[in-house]
């Protein structure tokens, strides 16, 4: 009897999911009246004022009021949710909070469509890209598709100039504050997310390109995967112990964390972290720093270039291996009110089965969140383990540390590098980080849905700031040694930042 009930429940969940996808896709085709759009604009702004703890950090209230009012004056015709998104998101971006962004409305796909796509190769995802001004270049052709050479510029996609897309998409993206390095890194990664949201999952595309002054046209198709490809996909999904500890990413067949020694006598250790995902991170750092200590390494290079951030817990743990003295990573995280932690849409995206489980667990959630805030000097703060004093780990590294950063170093990457710089623990090499030096608004989110367009607006609830003397520059973390790699460096697999560090280490060794 229990099995029968379970199967009935699964059937209900499956049918509910299909109906939800159909309803969502029909909603994307319906035009919203100007009056309803203006209601959504007012709703979005009111929720930002109600929830965001540092809304006017980079823009005055008067200026932001004016931008929302000006936007409403331009709304004079019915628009689809996607068209409305392209009007409202640029105003949200003017707030200059990199974590704050509307979720782009797009067509959802069914489980059957997902399975079909899993059996085919990506069309645009098989290339790596580089954005320069309003231009898009291919810098890596993973499968040697039609022998398109790295350095090839894509001029048009299906006869529409790429520059038109970039100009449209750039208005949707902001970094923290007045940083200028973040946008090109993020835009190259999300360009085709926006494109697919507009165009859908198409099976073919025509690219007009230019390479060394020679123009060529390529017709891309979404090819079916071979048996070998499918077997490899299956193999990649297997979670070995190594894959867990190094946080394997099946999508691009790489590891999120890497560790190695760069020389024969193991004096130079190197750690690369692509994202602070927290998965198995404690074990990774414990094992890694034990190896570094046993090898008696004198130098450590930590690479957080193109790391968009992630877990505060992970960076706090990493910091405990870099600070020989007790430390506090972040200042107490400010929230706008005592009830802010309860505005996180606890039941969001729950299927019927999950809803039942969450309902049973809700009293515990409510109790924990209610007592997670405290008031001090007229302001409210959220309790966090990262704002308490931490002790150094047993295998703390006491040698010289270099950290590689660039415009793709965002959020948690900026928090830890800002703290390291303030404490004079490292030499930062590269370019200004994409995240702000003095903190950001993120932590966890209050997920709001605009009432008429049904567009999601996740709003960060916590003001997270490193425990430092603030620079008040409203920009990113500035490197001690400024080096920016070019597109040709990437194509030639040169690393000028790493080359500078290695030369500096050799120079130091020769003087000892």
UniProtKB/TrEMBL annotation:
TM stretches of this protein: none
Limits of the Tail specific protease domain: 238-484
InterPro entries the record matches: ClpP/crotonase-like_dom_sf, Tail-specific_protease
Protein name: S41 family peptidase
A Pfam family it matches: Peptidase_S41
Species per Swiss-Prot/TrEMBL record: Chryseobacterium ginsengisoli
Matches recorded under Gene3D superfamilies: 2-enoyl-CoA Hydratase, Chain A, domain 1
Superkingdom, taxonomy of origin: Bacteria
């Amino acid at each position: 009897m229990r099995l029968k009930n379970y199967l009935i429940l699964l059937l209900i969940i499956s049918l509910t999911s299909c109906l939800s996808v159909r309803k969502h896709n029909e909603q994307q085709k319906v035009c919203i009246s100007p009056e309803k759009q203006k209601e959504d604009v007012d709703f979005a702004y009111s929720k930002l004022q109600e929830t965001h703890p540092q809304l006017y950090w980079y823009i005055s209230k008067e200026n932001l009021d004016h931008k929302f009012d000006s936007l409403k004056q331009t709304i004079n015709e019915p628009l689809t949710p996607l068209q409305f998104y392209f009007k409202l998101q640029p105003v949200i971006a003017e707030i200059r909070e990199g974590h704050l962004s509307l979720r782009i409305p797009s067509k959802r796909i069914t489980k059957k469509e997902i399975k079909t796509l899993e059996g085919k190769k990506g069309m645009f995802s098989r290339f790596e890209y580089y954005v320069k001004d309003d231009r898009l270049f291919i810098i890596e052709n993973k499968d040697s598709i039609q022998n398109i050479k790295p350095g090839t510029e894509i001029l048009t996609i299906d006869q529409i100039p790429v520059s038109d897309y970039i100009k449209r998409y750039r208005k949707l993206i902001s970094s923290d504050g007045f940083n200028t390095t973040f946008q090109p890194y993020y835009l190259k990664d999300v360009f085709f997310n926006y494109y697919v949201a507009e165009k859908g999952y198409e099976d073919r595309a025509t690219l007009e390109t230019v390479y060394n002054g020679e123009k060529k046209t390529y017709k891309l198709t979404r090819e079916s995967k071979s048996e070998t490809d499918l077997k490899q996909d299956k193999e990649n999904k297997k979670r070995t112990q190594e894959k867990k500890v190094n946080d394997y990413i099946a999508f691009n067949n790489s590891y999120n964390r890497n560790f190695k020694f760069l020389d024969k006598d193991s004096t130079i250790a190197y750690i690369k972290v692509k994202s602070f995902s927290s998965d198995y991170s404690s074990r990774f750092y414990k094992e890694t720093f034990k190896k570094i200590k046993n090898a008696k390494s004198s130098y450590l290079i930590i690479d957080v270039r193109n790391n968009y951030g992630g877990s505060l817990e992970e960076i706090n743990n990493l910091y405990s291996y870099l600070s020989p003295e007790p430390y506090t990573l972040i200042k107490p995280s400010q929230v706008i009110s005592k009830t802010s932690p309860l505005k996180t849409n606890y039941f969001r995206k729950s299927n019927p089965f999950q809803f039942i489980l969450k309902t049973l667990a809700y009293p515990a959630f409510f109790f924990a969140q209610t007592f997670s805030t405290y008031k001090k000097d007229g302001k409210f703060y959220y309790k966090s383990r990262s704002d308490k004093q931490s002790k150094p780990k047993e295998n703390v590294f006491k040698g010289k540390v270099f950290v590689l950063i660039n415009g793709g170093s965002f959020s948690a990457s900026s928090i830890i590098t800002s703290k390291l710089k303030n404490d004079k623990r490292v030499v930062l090499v590269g370019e200004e980080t994409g995240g702000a030096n003095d903190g950001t608004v993120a932590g966890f989110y209050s997920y709001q849905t605009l009432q008429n367009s049904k567009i999601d607006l996740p709003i960060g609830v916590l003001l997270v700031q490193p425990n430092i003397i603030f620079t008040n520059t409203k920009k990113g973390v500035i490197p001690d040694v400024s080096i920016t790699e070019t597109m040709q460096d990437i194509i030639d697999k040169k690393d000028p930042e790493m080359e500078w560090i290695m030369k500096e280490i050799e120079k130091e060794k020769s003087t000892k």
